[in-house]
User: Fold Helix-turn-helix transcriptional regulator from Microvirga splendida.
Amino acid sequence: MGVEGKERSRELETGAQVLSGNMGKTIQRLRKAYNLSLSELAEQSGVAKSIISQIERNETNPTLATIWRLSQALDVSIERVLASGDEEPFIEKSSKADTPILVSEDGKMRLAIIGWLKTIEWLQWYDVQSEPGGVLDSDSHQRGSVECLSVLEGEFEVEVGGVVQQAKAGESLRYRCDRPHSVRCVGDKPGRATMVCILKAAVMD
Assistant:
């Protein structure tokens, strides 16, 4: 192999490593956004837990079939998983089909993950849509975490530690989410809100 051939080979290898590194971070952020453990993602995707762990740590270059199975399990397009973060434009557009959706256990409340995946470990932002009576029960987040629910349509109710408060369109509720909490769509009309969760915030008194 000539000098030019060796240089090209190194460029391709470096490019593959960068792509794999960004892909691993993307998969990890999506997994955490869904609050999935490695074992749960392995079960849903059919990809071995050890392989997923290696991908997230940038220790292996997965096959296209593996990437496809992970993207299906995480409900995003394969293009989103393969996107190189270093080459992203300042203005980034996500399609509706490429927006991950969380669904409450009762199936009545849907949370679209509209925040930037790169900030998912400390800032989460959701578009919430609910049928009347929809309930979202959540476990505790990290100590000091705070959540803000801004109601756009309908009426919602938040319960934390036995304390209940309601908010209508144009109103917001801010509350500690470092303990079990519930969000309900009350009344007889559908509701819509934005929810922002700030993780690892300063501990509140």
In short: Helices lie at 3-33, 38-45, 49-56, 64-73, 78-82. DSSP finds five helices and ten strands in the chain.
